[in-house]
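[Meeting: bench + compute handoff]

Bench side (C.D.) handed over the final construct sequence. Compute side (W.E.) agreed to return the predicted structure before the next meeting so the bench team could plan truncations. Sequence as handed over:
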Amino acid sequence: MIKPIELVIFDCDGVLVDSEVIAVRVLVRLGEEYGWPLSEAEAIERFVGRSEAVNNALVAERLGAETAAVWGKRFQALHAEAVDAGLTPVDGLPQALDAIDLPVCVASSGTHQKMRHTLGRTGLYERFAGRIFSATEVRHGKPAPDLFLHAARSMGVDPTACVVIEDSAPGVTAARAAGMRALGYAGGVTAAERLAGPGTVVFRDMRELPGLIAAGAYQG
């Protein structure tokens, strides 16, 4: 018997705040500057949804540790600059949050510092304060299940009673590995086919989210 949902776990970048477009643009720019030509599709496939540590390791493997260190600092600076220039919540997200009457939390590959900045900039931080979890708190980031299991444990909810809202392939993979149901948001940078899979319903408009949760469509 499928347990009713007791906790909704949100990814941050690309699900709460429209920041993945910014990240991809910055990654492509850095690739041009440091000799690793990246198309937007390649940047999404290689980097989106993964932790800062994993992404830095990818750059180090390709360009060396010294360049990776510089790349990481430049990424943080350029990303922060773009966030301050006009980051917004994902379209329809605030209304969706208002309509969800279950406990919610955030579990993101981003650092707490980054989330304080992006969620704070968009007026969402206070909605989740005290219920924000980062990949820096666990040994293995997405696509491993560690972060989602950590969030569920911290919130006192069984993993099988959780649904995860994700917009990346590593994210939905992590949710499945954690034994959680997943809703894959395909209204951002990741193609719908990369989100589809067992126990996952793909949707394209955040306004659909409360209805999907209420109707139990995530049991698919």
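W.E. noted at the follow-up: The chain is about 50% helix and 10% strand. C.D. will use this when planning the next construct.
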